[in-house]
Amino acid sequence: MFDAKSEARPATCPVHAPADHPAIEPARVGILLANLGTPDGTDYWSMRRYLNEFLSDKRVVDYSAWIWQPLLQLVILSKRPFTSGAAYRSIWNTDADESPLLTITKDQTAAIRDEMHKRYGDRVHVDFCMRYGNPSTLTKVREMTEAGCQKILFFPLYPHYAGATSATANDQFFRALMKEKWQPIARIVEPYYEDPAYIDALAQSIETAYAKMDKKPEKLICSYHGVPERYLREGDPYHCQCQKTTRLLKERLGWDDTQIMTTFQSRFGPEEWLKPYTVKEVARLAEEEGVKNIAVCAPAFSADCIETLEEINEEIKESFEEAGGEHFTYIPCLNADPAHIHALAGVIDRNLTGWIDQ
């Protein structure tokens, strides 16, 4: 686990300052990676705290608080912590007593930290935070300023922009900056859904998985986390960016349109969400088209989590098999794969332009 002291350089007083001037850490650039978040445990109260923070975010559920909060507090949070806790227990990293998302994000951060230190030495300070749960964005911004980070590059680990992911992570980062007496200069990393290195990393993961199979799947399903359809009409670019990632992946693989498709998962609430829904589409493929062998990947997720390990590899798999499908393969997220780390490091390098030289 990362120890901030391992990156620290001695604090000093300015040359012309009086003797009683507080010591100031040498100036560095902070690189703060951000992911969605995770409950601290699978028990009822840990799940309730996490779900309350997540589902109270107006970027996630934008209904009027007069309608939503009574429903959330009195109904949803009375029941859902039990079902969500059971789902998390089915994938929980029991050795580390943490969610797979937290484990993987730690691994990604360690790999990116090593790569950045090869390039920039102790001029950079690399860490991660979560939008919901721990470690919080507020805590990590404070740690970075205390470590002498006068500039912070904030990197939401979402390839595609969406109000409910990238924007809310940015919102929380800005709130954290508002609390700093000496506010660092800040940059936000743009979505990287069409970055050639990211597309190549995705393609390599597909090619590696297919090479291990005795029989090639008839179709690859690119399952993206869904959002309500109206978000698209209101200007959110998420749907279009997802479609472009699938198209670029298809072109990189040299496939035609019959071999790959885009679907959306994780629908919540009464509204219509982006379609087709993954859980229904895999069943339709089996029932109506007689497809027996499919593979599913999740390009919108930088790390495996409850939506991939439980929803895709359990619920969506079950839907396909119950409809007559025979062979279902889930291709893991890129996680801390070297090709993924290379892609993320390239994105970081571009965004550090003008701030730090190699």
Please, could you describe this protein's structure?
- The two termini are 26 Å apart.
- The protein is globular.
- The protein has 11 helices and 8 strands.
- Helix 3 (100-120) crosses helix 11 and helix 6 (196-211) packs antiparallel against helix 11 (338-351).
- It is an alpha/beta fold and 358 residues long.
Keywords:
alpha/beta, disordered N terminus, 358 residues, 46% helix, globular, 4-stranded parallel β-sheet
The spatial strand order of the largest sheet comes to: 2-1-3-4
Strand content: 15-25%
| Protein structure class | alpha/beta
DSSP helix fraction = 40-55%
Most strands sheet: 4 strands, parallel
Query: Spans of 5+ residues with little confidence (pLDDT < 50)?
Result: 1-6
Number of helices: 11
Oligomer: single chain
The topology string of helices and strands comes to EHHHEHEHEHEHHEHEHEH
Total strands: the figure is 8
* Shape call: globular
Q: What is the straight-line distance between the termini?
A: 26 Å
Radius of gyration: 22 Å
Mean pLDDT: 93
